[in-house]
Amino acid sequence: AAAAEAAARQKREAAEDAARAEEDAARKARVRQAELDRALAKQNLAADGSPKITELVESEEGDKGVDKTDVDEEDPDTLEPGTFAPNAGNGGDAEHYTWTQTLSEVEVRVRVPNDTPARSVVCDVKKKHLTFGYKSVESNATTNVTTLLDADFFGEVKVDDCFWTVEDKSTVVLTLAKKNDMEWWRCALLGDPEIDTRKVQPENSQLSDLDGDTRATVEKMMYDQRQKQMGLPTSDEQQKADTMKKFMDAHPEMDFSNCKFN
User: Fold this and answer.
1) pLDDT at residue 59 is higher than 50
2) CA 192 to CA 246: how far, in whole Å?
3) Which residue intervals of the chain are DSSP H helices?
């Protein structure tokens, strides 16, 4: 019975290892594709950061070309160049980890070698920087530290509210408290693939748990963030424009043609 139980456990662990290996390979493939997309997007940007004109379409006169981007309306499903869509947790992938986020926290799940004990984890969280790795003992009894992550955060964190735990036998979960809890991060660590934060989809249950004023503030912040990224006026800017339009409509006798508004 003991032998059968040991064999079953060994088979189960082998299946878990195979599943983790498959998951890691898929994540790294997504990261490579994201890096390729980002490199291609950079090549298609002019020196000032604006998209290069790469395609001309014929005008009605037939003798002039216009930028196709001026003709076609923006597709709401189109991602910002060089970014990819957020995962189900509003985060993304990197070479050694996956991450998710809420407005207040970022969760980073780092893959480490099987059976890495907590005492071997090396994790140093500063308000703008993360250093993460693990210690291993070599055959000659020397201790070696392998660094997996060493980069700045996208935003600052509240160090005293950050912590990490070892989950199963090959994953360390870092929970990071955002200093600015009204901002969606584009990446967990600078230099890694970025998500298009316009596509972030917060859970309705999270919004419904907020009181009325807080929920209104969060929804306004999310709307303004999307508007800015699309080059459109924020809610405050639109409100000012609407107020000015009402004033102008109420005073048709006044000439506003030479007025400059800011």
Assistant:
1) no
2) 47
3) 2-43, 68-71, 204-208, 212-229, 235-250
Q: Take residue 53 and report the two structure tokens written for it.
A: 């004109």
> Long-range contacts: 178-184, Cβ < 8 Å, 24+?
178/103, 178/104, 178/105, 178/106, 179/127, 179/155, 180/155, 180/156, 181/103, 181/104, 182/103, 182/217, 182/218, 182/221, 183/103, 183/155, 184/90, 184/101, 184/103, 184/222, 184/225
Q: Which residue has the tokens 């893959």?
A: 111
Q: What is the mean pLDDT of residues 84-104?
A: 91
Contacts of 35 (CB under 8 A, 6+ apart): 193
Question: CA separation (Å) from 157 to 94, 175, 189?
Answer: 19, 10, 12
pLDDT band for position 206 (cuts 50, 70, 90):
low
50 token code pair: 């604006």
Residue 170 vs residue 169, higher pLDDT: 170
CATH code for 2-50+75-201? 2.60.40.790
